[in-house]
Amino acid sequence: xxLPSSVAKRWLLGSLLTVALLGSGYYGARHHAWPALKGxxxxxxxxxxxxxxxxxxxxxxxxxxxxxxxxxxANPAAWRVAAEAAEARGxxxxxxxxxNLRREEPTTENHLAYIRLALRLNAPGYALASLPSATEAxxxxxxxxxxxxxxCSRSGRPDEARKHLAELARLVPAxxxxxxxxxxxxxxxxxxxxxPALRAQILALxxxxxxxxRALALLLREHISARLVPGAAELLARLxxxxxxxxxxxxxxxxxxxxxQSPDAALLLSQLQSEVPADPADAARVIELLTRLGRxxxxxxWFDSLPEKTRADETVQNGAxxxxxxxxxxxxxxxxxxxxxxxxxxxxxxALLAHAYRAQGREADFAAAWKLALIGVGSxxxxxxxxxARAEAWRWTAERHDVIWKLFALAPDNPSIQHSLMRWERFxxxxxxxxxxxxxxxxxxxEDDVARNNLAYTxxxxxxxxxxxxxxxxxxxxxYPKNPYYATTHALALHKQGDSAAALALLDSLGAxxxxxxxxxxxxARFLAAAGEARPAANTLEGVVLEDLLPEEKRLAAETGADIxxxxxxxxxxxxxxALRGERDAEATPGASAATGWLALLAPATREQAGTDMQLxxxxxxxxxxxxxxxxxxxxxxxxxxxxxxxxxxxLERRQxxxxxxxxxxxxxxxxxDRDPRRLENLRALATGWQWKAExxxxxxxxxxRDTGDRLLLEELLSYYRAERRTxxxxxxxGLHLARDPGTDEEAVAYAYYSxxxxxxxxxAQVTARHAFEAEPTD
Length: 779
Description:
By secondary structure, the chain is mainly α.
């Protein structure tokens, strides 16, 4: 039924309207309604999290904040609640929440809160990375520079700390404390006392009551460190007028009095010792003072008199250990450290234990303690630096570089650490560690061509990643064709690729001064030897000083020497061969046939490809010069034809009635021949010509194992083993044949017969025998 045109139009318009309404509805829901609903849910979760936090329930506050962050990470309110909740619970991940809040909402207050938390958690490295991202408003805030100076100082960056303090002093000229901080940095950078105005400035700052003690202590400490008596008494007198001196300042006063040889020093020290036993931090300072004043022997009795809680403190124990170390009391040091733990400085306890063990010659205990010390520093740069200082003070060279490797893992960009490791591993001759070092540098700085060339060179020496190393060497040489180091690496890569002639030409293109380097002389000798130039290679190698070369480079020298010796032997063999042939031609009578050597027994193809040594051996064999033949065989290596050299050695041993050694040499010849049919046929021909029946059969067995269908060989082997009455070998040979061709009834019956004799595969043999009898009952 056909609809009227008006109805069809209404249907079409209705359909289009429905599609338009559905599309607009989907668009509105997808881009407006759903985001609005999602935003409302996130805001509700943030309100709930804040409510939990206000109600002193940080656990639930953190849980709800995390759910909110799971829905949307661009969510400063949730990051703030998560940070505050984690801080309230004392969790270390609060630092991560603060960092994300700083990134999502980069205000000055958020940045300062992040730095304060990093300082409180003793994690200055995290905050250090955030300093360059400070906004202009943050950089204008004096508090930022005060905190940044602390971060840089704790991270071992005094120059950056000084810059922040200088900026703080510029922003707040009335901040005398900041000016004193800057002056302290400048004072540490002027050990030669070339800046009198700086000392005058610090003295001027000492006029401010709140800074007097600190400023005077700073100047007095400099006098004590430099043993400067003039002026020390005046500074000491002024410092003693300051009320309520701290324990560090009182210790400074005692040190100054000791330097000035005042009798009051002993009295003040005794007074201080009577006041501090209950405070572990102050007790540790007094112990350190006694050791510094050369009175380490007084530390032990005083340490034993301290309260148990103070003696258990790791800082106090550390001071007592340092005193025993100064006295050389290794037994007492071990006793103090052995059954305790230092939660904050366990690495140092293990290092001191290692020192005690080594002093007692207990190397196994030393190695274990030192390993724990290295593990204990973890990824803490300050601890690692302290451990390095210990190793250097104790002159532990190998252990020092253990720590430097740890430092390299923490700060791989530090050039001084890189160079120290390069020198050490080069001195140790550890090419593997050198390659590891260069690989890490290239990983961090792919544009560092020097490190990439070093990586390629060490890789070529170690035969590790040769293809990649060759490609890198080629690219570097193409980019810098006049660089002798890149040319050297490229030449070694060409040699490894089998193109020694091109490698030699590349080295010869360098200047005379560059070619005179021991490493390049060695490589040039190696390339000459590989090209067959024995004399020039020997002359070049003779002038190479191998002492400072890497083990792999020395191995190249040994290989070069071996190649030169081989080339010399080959040249000598050619000369002897020509001489022998000349003598033989001179002595020969017309019509006489030439002497027949062992080469005549071999296949024609082998004779045609015989090298000089093989031809000389044939001549010596033919002229019955057995001593000359023995010398030639034992001096050389015939490479692919070395199985023939082993066979000839077997022949010489048999001539001297050394039957056992002859058998051993023949087995070596078979092993070198492997399963190669050509080689095995040559050995079979030799055994036949020498009338060695047992060796011939052994060789035939090797050939038969490759081609068990050879019926002529099968018959010969069966005939031999029947004559020798060796039933197991008859069974073995027939088994090999039948495994390939089970359809030969005669061999199958014989296999069954021998199986029954030997009680082997009896059931199968009985079936075979019955079938054969049923087929031919009259046989």
